[in-house]
């Protein structure tokens, strides 16, 4: 028997408009993007999630740096 972990991402309010209805599903009154990643073990799933959030964090830092260097202030 092959088992795997399927990772979904919960959508924040207002994000649904960026996805087609076939790309999302509702579960317990929350919306999720269908399987963004499939892994063979829980350890790999945790690692994939950590990598995802680290990438998001780096992108936010880069964006903030570009805004700051352009002379704009976002507060």
Mean pLDDT: 85
Low-pLDDT stretches? none
What is the rounded distance between the termini?
Answer: 52 Å
What order do the SSEs take from the amino end to the carboxyl end, as H and E? Answer: EEEH
In terms of structural class, how would the helical and strand content be classed?
A: alpha+beta
Helical segment count? 1
Percentage of residues in DSSP E strands? 25-35%
Radius of gyration: 16 Å
- Shape annotation: flat
Query: Biggest β-sheet, characterized?
Result: 3 strands, antiparallel
Adjacency order of strands in the biggest sheet: 1-3-2
Q: What percent of residues adopt helix (DSSP H or I)?
A: 25-40%
How many beta strands in the DSSP annotation?
3
Oligomeric assembly: single chain
């Amino acid at each position: 028997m092959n088992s795997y972990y399927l990772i979904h991402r919960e959508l924040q309010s207002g994000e649904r408009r960026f996805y087609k209805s076939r790309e999302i599903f509702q579960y317990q009154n929350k919306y999720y993007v269908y399987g963004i990643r499939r892994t063979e073990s829980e350890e790999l799933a945790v690692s994939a999630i950590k990598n995802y959030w680290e990438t998001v964090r780096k992108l936010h830092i880069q964006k903030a740096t570009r805004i700051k260097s352009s002379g704009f202030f976002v507060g």
